[in-house]
Amino acid sequence: MVVAGPPECMGRRRWFILATFVCLFAFSCGTELKVEHKHVDHHLTGYNHTLAKILVEYASAVYMSDLTQLFTWTCSRCSGLTEGFEIIELIVDVEHCLQSFVGVAKDLTAIVIAFRGTQEHSIQNWIEDLYWKQLDVNYPGMPDAMVHHGFYTAYHNSTIRPGILNAVERAKEYYGDLDIMVTGHSMGGAMASFCGLDLMVNTKAKNVQVMTFGQPRVGNAAFASYYSQLVPNTIRVTNEHDIVPHLPPYYRYFRQKTYHHFPREVWLHNIGVGSLVYQVEVVCDGSGEDPDCSRSVAGNSIADHLVYFGVELMCESWRSCGIVMDSLVSEYGKTDLKGNIVLSRDSILRMKTEMNVGEDHV
To answer: Quick one: signal sequence residues (predicted)?
Structure first.
């Protein structure tokens, strides 16, 4: 039997519930995202929501397969917060299905480097493969540090690295010693982390910031410790139940032998009830494996992996490592014997000059 309380108590209870919902609604309106800080270590980078919204658009644009539109920054994703970006070099490693660009964002006063992630049509196989990946490469100069062979090779043993380093040097020649921001999604995030480390250690670059989206683990705890010291200005953004940040698996009982994320994670997730749902950004602790962040939920969603901040992070078509390029642009690029392509700023300027000359004679 249910016993009802006095009418005045019932009235107060209804007003309390109504007031609670009104407060929740008022708090959620006009606030796109709430940032919750916890266990912040002051020697590590602070999180900038506005910068994250900008860099995720670069991480999305690098998925474009029309190289002409991408290089000239006229693609469907080459606007909004990234409008006016100038690509210095676009590198496509056809042999290994990799793509990256280096350019200058004048509004950020920075060099931006972006790496493409895994093609979405093959992501299921890639995820299944990650469950069984072993630590199989000793990272040079870091005792006990081991990393994932595939991620390490994708950056260090392909045409990507020399193209990136060359483009960074030329960008500095054109615009001076700018800050460098490195980004990427999924496997592109793994490559971005190796790039940031490479720039700091091997080129002695200063003011390098790495921000990735949906990045998998790339090394063990020893590597994570070295990385956090050498590239402290790093943010890994994870989204809800995104499956990829949970891979390769982390085994807490074998901490020195298992994969381990480096800090700092920022976890996006929704809270609220019914239609009163809004997204929060939790700035996680400095461990890299904060149990109260993405590790507090099951990593079981591919859908959460493909959209961050409402921006799609996937190819615009189901093309298997395919590219589209205007024949005129291809004439001004550099192609090696394996079909790998490098389009540089100097090449496109020469092309435009010659095209203008031709028009004058028509």
So the answer is: 1-30
Cα 278 from Cα 64, distance rounded (Å): 30
Which amino acid appears at position 302 of this protein? I
| pLDDT tens for each residue of 34-78 | 344 444 444 456 899 999 999 999 999 999 988 889 999 999 999
Q: DSSP secondary structure string, 200-243?
A: HHHS--SSEEEEEESPPP-BBHHHHHHHHHH--SEEEEEETTBS
Q: So where are the chain's domains?
A: 33-325
Distance, C-alpha 319 to centroid of its chain:
21
- Other C-beta atoms closer than 10 Å to the C-beta of 117 total 32
Q: What are phi and psi of 45, to 5 degrees?
A: -65, 150
Q: What is the pLDDT of residues 284-318, one digit of tens each?
A: 999 999 999 999 999 999 999 999 999 999 987 65
**Strand pairing partners for 206?**
none
**In this structure, which CATH number among 3.30.200.20, 3.40.50.1820, 3.30.365.10, 3.30.710.10 belongs to the domain 33-325?**
3.40.50.1820
SS3 115: strand
